[in-house]
Specification:
4 helices
């Protein structure tokens, strides 16, 4: 006689599976929102370039250089993380949170330039 799973264990396993699936959906939704918020730092710069150019009296060459520097910074950061294996060595959620906080702090000097 072979021992099979207990009848109640299938129901418990199904309940755990449903909870895991709903938790994964919630986690994915949070990850998508967090990624959009973090990437907005990259895209919002393009929206404020005209104001920065006007207030700082930047030449077109300086404006393009500043805009390119932001994008190059993102690329270099991504490459360094890939080469170093940072998300593989440390908890990716902590790496993401620290990176987002660092990006927000780097944007802080731009805040006083905002009008009104």
């Amino acid at each position: 006689m072979t021992a099979g799973p207990e009848p109640g264990s299938r129901i418990a396993a199904a309940a755990v599976s449903r909870r895991s699936a709903s938790g994964m959906k919630r986690s994915m939704a949070f990850l998508v929102l967090a990624e959009m918020a973090a990437m907005s730092l990259w895209f919002v710069f393009a929206a404020v370039v005209p104001e920065i150019q006007a207030e700082a009296a930047l030449s077109p060459v300086m404006t393009v250089s500043l805009s390119s520097a932001v994008q190059v910074g993102f690329v270099i950061g991504a490459l360094l993380f890939a080469v170093h294996g940072t998300p593989d060595r440390y908890d990716p959620s902590v790496v993401f949170a620290v990176s987002a906080l660092g990006a927000a702090l780097c944007q802080r000097p731009v805040a006083p330039m905002q009008s009104g």
